[in-house]
TrEMBL record:
It comes from the Bacteria. PROSITE patterns: RESPONSE_REGULATORY. InterPro entries: Bact_response_regulator (IPR050595), CheY-like_superfamily (IPR011006), Sig_transdc_resp-reg_receiver (IPR001789). This is Response regulator. It comes from Lacinutrix gracilariae. The lineage of its organism: Bacteria, Pseudomonadati, Bacteroidota, Flavobacteriia, Flavobacteriales.
Length: 123
């Protein structure tokens, strides 16, 4: 059975691309367009994987990772930052905030699923 995936992404085009790729690979997805809705869905639905953008309108993805990790989210939940922030130290900052992995945008549609699964399978 495929894991449930929550996508927290405010950009419509990015949400469409991620949703499309995941649905084509038989994943069940939940969508949130801001951090507050993402927190709520994460705690209600307990997805196995959460994909988070760093630039969100109501709080940044690093703060969101911390909140998810320290507010009752199951410890086995895999959080992956999917972001265009690709400066030196950004990957480390994401991991320090509680993410299990980091994938840079623009994503490669041919490799995204395998990148995500490699993070999920090494948790």
């Amino acid at each position: 059975m495929s894991p449930n995936i929550l996508i927290i992404e405010d950009n419509e085009q990015n949400m469409y691309m991620l949703s499309y790729l995941l649905e084509q690979n038989n994943f069940n997805i939940l969508k949130a367009y801001n951090a507050i809705d993402g927190l709520k869905l994460a705690h209600e639905k307990h997805p196995e994987i959460i994909l988070i953008d760093i630039q969100l309108p109501d709080m940044d993805g690093h703060e969101l990772c911390v909140k998810l990790r320290h507010n009752g989210l199951p410890k086995e939940t895999v959080i992956i930052v999917v972001t265009s922030y690709a400066m030196g130290g950004d990957r480390e900052k994401a991991i320090e905030s509680g993410a299990n992995g980091y994938i840079e945008k623009p994503i490669n549609p041919d490799t995204f699923i395998s990148q995500m699964e490699s993070v999920y399978n090494t948790k």
